Amino acid sequence: AVVVAIAIPVTLALTLLIYYLAGYTLNRITLFALIFSIGILVDDAIVVVENIHRHFSMHDGRSLWKLSVDAVGEVGNPTLLATWAVIAAILPMAFVSGLMGPYMRPIPVGASVAMLFSVAIAFIISPWAFAHILEKFPPRSHAGHEESGLDRFYRRTMTVILENGRVRAGYFLAMVGLLIGSLALVGLRAVTVKMLPFDNKNEFQVVLNMPEGTDIDRTGQAVGALAERLRQVPEVQRVTSYIGTASPYNFNGLVRHYFLRQRPYQADILVSLSRRQERKRQSHAIAKELRAPLADIARSFGARVQVAEIPPGPPVLSTLVFELYGPDPAKREELARRLRVLLQATEGIVDVDTYVPDPQALERLEVDRQKATLNAIPAGSVAQTVELALAGRTVDLAHMEDEKEPVEIRLRLPPDKRGGLDAVRSITLLSRNGTAIPVSALSQTRRLELDTPIYHKNLQAVTYVIADVSGRQESPVYAIMQLRGRVAELAESMGIGLDQYFTRQPETSQSWALKWDGEWQITYEVFRDLGLAFAVVLILIYILVVGWFKSFTVPLVIMAPIPLTLVGILPAHWAMGAFFTATSMIGFIAGAGIVVRNSIILVDFIQLRLREGMPLEAAVVDAGAVRFRPMLLTAAAVVAGASVILFDPIFQGLAVSLMAGEVASTLLSRTAVPVLYFLLARRQRLDKEAIEGESV
Asked: Which end of the chain is more exposed for a tag (fewer CB within 10 A), N or C?
């Protein structure tokens, strides 16, 4: 244990040096990358030290240094190959494009570098240190390498499986059944697929939109009612309201453009919670509970409200974003309004809003240039006077004793007179001869309708409808599956043939189309790139194993346990109520390398026993019994290393995939790999005998 533990600080120190040289900072991601690596980097030392200890227990008269060299030589090549297999499984994730690539890149980079350092330490430092320890502190007993009752049970069970065809067929059916049952958890929605889980932040945001044209006093009344309800929550420590102005910059404000909210009918409420160590509920649970009562309060004011959590990513306008394209702007806006009504009536869809504002009256003062010219008053002076009265202007600074900073002196009408144009019309200006002339005598009032904003995406006119997802499946994937048919029916009822796009924007806005965007787009891109990375992983591992074993079929046996990791991963996600996220996928890919590593060492040991003259069946059984100890120690190291991040909201999926996948694959591959190799070797032997018989 001491020798294995030596590898950890040395490897981590060298990995931190590489991080420094690569320009990475010491942040949450790099720290989790180091934690993720701990369970993997001790694997090489475990294999080497365990094999030295096994040779030491043989009592065959060799010197301690001789048996150390022999033990390292016995497992050196397969361990080196297995290490490259793990690197081949992890490193391709560093080339994932999109938003997730740079975010997660320190994990594959750090883990790959740590594996190279760990194998060097395992071959150089670990044997030397362990030999010194055995020389000075020889064990009193070698009972640790005597077969246990579990090993004897394994040998009897494996012998029956290898000798009895029906039992073997039942074994494979059980494996396939477990795999299908695990995959069915995704199909039955017992395991929810999501980009990233909800983080546990110490704050969230309530975004209020009153009917367009509402004055700031009415907006303040609605904010007061919402704030009063928020203060009733035990975990809420502070409620800060921003009426008619944007709240300070945060992630949401930057991505969702909340910093542009400067209208009197708009407000933000920043809710600060107690520290996560002082509360039992996560911020997502609190926000989810408050959505319904806050929506009821906002509805009583005719307003719309959104509970915006501070997301760990991705940077999108909302969880669900509907991009509507079409040649007729008026009809497109009508479709957006009807879609908003449809979403509001759909269970599990919350915080529905649209970027289409309600019709808003506009009173415009137009300067009568003829009258203004006759009175020698420039039209610009009239406009500047009206702007000064309504918007105001800073004319000087006041230095007050009780203020640390100078205070602006802003000149404008009082609030009660800025709500309309009556006070503005009564403002007088002096003509050339000194006559006071009111603004009303120099202007005319026109009543119009305010122009609605026009939005474009990649130069195409678009109308946005946004929503969030709540309920049992808090993932946009399932909402899209539920809504796509109903949206198509809605468009048909308006006489619109609506094409739906899921992965790309339509080429033109001259035909009616709906682009499903938001979190779904990022989810698709990330899982697509991770899937491509996993395909590259499989190809690289296959090439490595083919090059070592000089066989095109043995690598298939070695890689067969990879899908068996899902037997542990998916049920574990279901049992813990965790989302299957991008970090879960990373854990699955990394776990594939560890599984292949164990399989390589297992198959190499079988071939070693065959070269020593042991019969095929005995070699297969012996390999599973003897090599199970380092496999079990490796699994225990991975589980112990990943357990540190098990309760982190973001990296929980990574920990669950590593822990459950490693446990399941260790137990199942111990039988699956020997049985598959036995069938393959027996088939090759029979084919060889048949060819030799024909030649004779």
From this structure: C
HEC string of 243-305 equals: ECCCCCCCHHHHHCCHHHCCCCCEEEEEEEECCHHHCCCCHHHHHHHHHHHHHHHHHHCCCEE
**What pLDDT is attached to residue 54?**
74
Distance CA 162, CA 167 (A): 8
**Which positions ≥6 away from 312 have C-beta within 8 Å?**
196, 197, 198, 199, 649, 650
Q: Residue 367: what residue type?
A: V
The 3-state DSSP composition of the chain as helix, strand, coil percent (nearest 5) reads: 60, 15, 25
List C-alpha distances in Å: 498 to 338, 466, 490, 506: 14, 18, 9, 11
The Cα 71–Cα 630 span in angstroms is 14
Asked if residues 40 and 114 have their Cβ atoms less than 8 Å apart, the reply is yes
Return the pLDDT at 144.
46
**Angle subtended by helix axes 64-90 and 28-56, to nearest 10:** 150
Give the pLDDT of residue 569.
92
Query: CA of 307: how far to CAs of 327, 489, 621, 689, in Å?
Result: 33, 29, 59, 73
Give the Cα-Cα-Cα angle 470, 528, 557 (nearest 5 degrees): 115
Report the C-alpha gap between 544 and 83 in whole angstroms.
Answer: 11
Question: Binning pLDDT at 50, 70 and 90, where does residue 5 land?
Answer: low
The C-alpha atoms of residue 488 and residue 485 are separated, in whole angstroms, by: 5
Residue identified by tokens 């609190």 is 286
pLDDT per position as a tens digit, 564-581: 889 999 999 999 888 898
Q: Which two tokens stand for residue 198?
A: 């909800």
Answer whether 203's CB lies under 8 Å from 271's CB.
yes
Asked if residue 323 lies in contact with residue 505, where contact means CB atoms within 8 angstroms, the answer is yes
What pLDDT is stored for residue 313 in this prediction? Answer: 58
Peptide bond into 649 cis (omega under 30): no
Task: Write the pLDDT tens digit of every residue in 389-440.
Answer: 888 888 899 988 888 889 999 898 888 887 778 888 888 888 888 888 888 8
Evaluate whether 301 touches 218 at the Cβ level (below 8 Å): yes
The mean pLDDT of the chain is 84
538 vs 89: CA distance, rounded Å: 8
234/279 Cα distance (integer angstroms): 9
Residue at 543: amino acid letter: I
Buried b (16+ CB within 10 A) or exposed e, 41-58: bbbbbbbbbbbbbbbbbe
pLDDT digits (tens, 9 = 90+) for 615-652: 888 888 888 888 777 777 777 877 887 887 888 777 88
Amino acid at residue number 308: A
Among the residue ranges 40-44, 47-51, 215-219, 333-337, the one predicted with the least confidence is 40-44
Closest CA to 115 of 37, 171, 174, 52: 37
Is the dihedral angle over the CA atoms 11, 16, 21, 24 positive or is it negative? Answer: positive
Query: What is the C-alpha separation between 606 and 620, in angstroms, rounded?
Result: 6
Q: What is the pLDDT of residue 335?
A: 94
CA angle 288, 291, 293 (to 5 degrees): 130
DSSP string for 79-116 = HHHHHHHHHHHHGGGGG--TTHHHHHTHHHHHHHHHHH
Distances in Å between the Cα of 481 and the Cα atoms of 30, 137, 374, 464, 478 are 36, 65, 68, 19, 5
pLDDT per residue as tens digits for the range 319-331: 899 999 999 998 9
Out of 68-77, 123-132, 320-329, 467-476, the most confident range is 320-329
Query: Which whole-number Å values give the CA distances from 588 to 86, 102, 207, 462, 572, in the listed order?
Result: 12, 19, 38, 39, 13
7: pLDDT strictly greater than 70: no
Output the DSSP codes for 431-466.
-TTS-EEEHHHHEEEEEEEPPPP-EEETTEEEEEEE
